[in-house]
Amino acid sequence: MSIKKSKRSISSPAEERLTTKSKKPPATMRPVTRVQKRGSGVRRAAPAGTLSDETRAKLDELQDQLGDLQESLLLTGAHNDMGDLETTLALLPAEIEQLRTQGYVFRSFLENKVNVLAEQWEEIDSRVSREVSRRQRELEREAGVAESALRQATSGRASQVARAESAIETLERKVRAAQSAVGAMYETLQQNVNQTQSQVEQIRWLLDQVDEACFPLYPAEDPVMACQAQYMETKKEGPKGVLYLTDERLIFEQKEEKATKKVLFITTDKEKVQQLIFEVPVGQIEEVKSSQKGFLGHKEMLELLFAPEADLSGATLRLRGTDNEEWAGLIGRVRSEEIVKERTRPKDEAVVEAARAAPTKCPTCGATLSVEIVRGMREITCEYCGSVIRL
After folding, report:
1. C-alpha span between 296 and 207 (Å, rounded)
2. Helix or strand or coil: residue 116?
3. Which domain covers residue 236, as residue numbers?
4. Burial of 37: CB neighbours in 10 Å, binned 0-12, 13-18, 19+
5. How many C-beta atoms surround the C-beta of residue 100 within 10 A?
6. Is the pTM of this model over 0.85?
7. Element (H or E) spanning 283, and its range?
8. Do 171 and 295 sit in the same domain of this protein?
9. Tens digit of pLDDT for each residue in 6-44?
10. Which residues contact 72 (CB under 8 A, 6 or more apart)?
11. pLDDT tens, 326-368?
12. What is the torsion angle, in degrees rounded to the nearest 10, for the CA atoms of residue 257, residue 261, residue 264 and residue 266?
């Protein structure tokens, strides 16, 4: 039984007799026809024996509540959710292929993950459809009971009003229970699809930032991830920009707009500042940890300790829009070369071997070089004469 969405006042039997002179009162509820003369602004006086204002207000409230449940009875939210999942899963393969074309070679699991999710959607969609149909029939029967109780409550009797209120509250509880039960059927799928879509968006943003970066990548260097961050030069201040992680380096690039002119504390002119702040070979990253320096002890700082031969001793970063623990784990997988398992294609071995063929003596002063060559290094400096030797 469907429920009409329109909101109407609840008429007492006495009012229905007044508004239908020659016809018998209908069996179903009808709104009271209020007669008003045009331009006079005067309404017909209500007859004796009408419902009290309190009872009428309560019945109108129950009618509104019942009307508001109309869309919920159809469980359209589940249909919409499943439709959105279908659309997202249909678009993801092409989006991932575009990222591969642009040069992203990690997270090789994405293609298979999307295939598995699509198969799960097909199986869950049929089960959800059957469950929605079954629940709809149950809710329509319950709605019929509530409508009948509300119709009887127009007599104004307190017991019948209470019975109508109870019936509508029961219907509302059953609607919520049905929504929860149906939603639980595809909740895990929805979470995994949303997470996969988020991963694709992260990679797309990474590639856009690499295209705009003020520094070049090495010939065989591949980007892994990037995020917005702030390099904390003090406890509260520092340049804002983008933190990049490649399979060879950790890089921070300042990339922000800074005020150049203010009038009465209002910025009137800005300039974009974009410059390389630091770059460290992944082989020189000795320790990564999340620090509890945020409000109420939240882990909002990423602290890095670098090897003695690095240009910096370490760095403290505030990451934005991402999880510190996730980034610490990602850096660890790059350092240990665990990330290699996620590659969709191998590195150019010729370029890799060229980097490994480092000189053992300085071509300028002839001193024996004792610098350890680590992954990500592209040059070394002779400690005796200061010559920079490209690898």
Report:
1. 35
2. helix
3. 223-342
4. exposed
5. 15
6. no
7. none
8. no
9. 433 444 443 443 344 334 443 333 333 333 333 333 333
10. 175, 179
11. 999 999 999 999 999 999 998 876 666 665 566 667 777 666 6
12. -20
